[in-house]
Amino acid sequence: MLKKHSILFANIIVILLIIVVSTGLQINEYTYYKNAAIKQAREDVAFTSSDISYRLTIATTEQLVASQMMANDIFLKIWAEDEISFNTDEHKQLLYDYLNEYKQKYNYDVVFFVSNQTYNYYYDGGLNKVVSPTDDFDIWYFNFLDLHQEYDIQIDHDEVNDFSVTLFVNCLVTDESGNILGVVGVGNQIDDFQNQLENYVSEYDLNICIVNKGNAHNSFTGSTSYYKTVDDATASLGLSRETILMDVDDDGYAWNEGNLCTKVMRNKALNWNIFVQSDITKNINILLAQMNRRIVLLMLIILSYLMVSLTLFSRLNRITYESHNTDELTRLANNRLFREKFNKENKRKFSKETASLFMLDVDDFKSFNDTRGHLYGNAVLQLVSQTLKENVGETGFVGRWGGDEFIGVIYDTPEKAKVILDNVQNIIRSKDTAMPISFSCGISQINSNLTLEKNMELADRALYKSKENGKAQSSIYSP
């Protein structure tokens, strides 16, 4: 009783220690993970904003290179200078073919040239229109000239292709003296650009806005999913106009406000401010949910520990019981333990599955003791028990009923059981022993409606049949 109380008291102390330590760890863990969530959010917006800026630069580099190549092409400069002098269809066709060649080579949606002498808007398919400072769709051209920049990148409507929203790269074309000859450029619809940003949003759960910071303003006054006007970006990000249009250095600027982590990057090549914002409320809630799961897991562990503790004594008692009821000589279950296991299996298995009961005793066992002594007789019993145990294995269980008598169950038909027992017989008889060893065995199919004693009577009848037929054999009970 003292031992049981000591173990119970020790278990209570262990459980209390687990609760105290785990509570302290949970508090520290909450603080740690909250700070970690903030840090991770800052890293996410920093990485994403930098990567978006880089990828946007790469995405527009080809368009920029193509536009710059055309802007510095001698052919285009000579053509522009001769535009008025050679105002013929043949002369214009040379330009159309030139622009179309770039379109086909790089798979652009539109390639164009606007002459500063005539304001003619030429594109790869012909003459589109004459641009005018009073036309809202043409304001981009005159605003670009006022910027005094080599190139300009912007989102605008493409009049040539049903006014689709398109990413344009415009380059200034000048003569040897620096006089403006016009503007040449290429355009691609922004579907791919939108899809790239969509991948970031879905992967990192971010809010992304791109705002025109320094390019020429044009007729496109609306917003796309991510390329937004200042007002739309202000509403989407919850920031002021001054913040949206702020100037930042090459490293950008990041800050926290409540649960929002924001990073702005300036892409000087595109003259765009790129905002990436992460709301860490969701991350914190996820961490809290994880902590709650850990608490539940801890409670389950404690309950499991209690269950183990409560069952420990019964298991120890069971081990002790089986140890006391295991035959010391053969290490098989004695008749008491065998009877208990049989009754348990009878309720669980024998009513559903075919099983066989066998009984055997060593032939002429008394002669071993009389001739070679009791130690030899014990060795014979050990040989028989070990061979039975090895061959029956997991297909059943074996016990020593008493003296030289053994009993066992095989989870199969009597015919299959006979094969196993005949093999045991052959193994034993093949051993090089001082005296020949064999056994007589009786097998019967277990009837779950009968007690162990009644089933043994059937197997015992088959056993006597084996003895009557000359011993050293196994017989199956037949009604």
What does the model show?
- The structure is a single chain.
- It contains 13 helices and 15 strands.
- It is α+β, with helices and mostly antiparallel strands.
- The protein folds into 2 domains: 38-287, Beta-Lactamase (2-Layer Sandwich), CATH 3.30.450; 325-476, 2-Layer Sandwich (Alpha-Beta Plaits), CATH 3.30.70.
- Strand 8 and strand 9 form a beta hairpin.
- Helix 1 (2-71) packs antiparallel against helix 5, helix 10 crosses helix 11 and helix 11 (374-392) crosses helix 12.
- The chain is elongated and about 135 Å long.
- The relative contact order is 0.08.
Strand and helix layout:
Elements: H1 2-71, H2 74-81, H3 89-106, E1 110-115, E2 120-123, E3 126-130, H4 139-147, E4 151-158, E5 164-174, E6 180-189, H5 191-204, E7 207-212, H6 230-237, H7 241-244, E8 253-257, E9 260-267, E10 272-279, H8 281-324, H9 335-350, E11 356-362, H10 365-372, H11 374-392, E12 396-402, E13 405-410, H12 414-430, E14 439-445, H13 452-468, E15 474-476
Parallel strand pairs: 14-15
Antiparallel strand pairs: 1-2, 1-6, 2-3, 4-5, 5-6, 7-10, 8-9, 9-10, 11-13, 11-14, 12-13
Helix pairs in contact: 1-5, 1-8, 10-11, 11-12
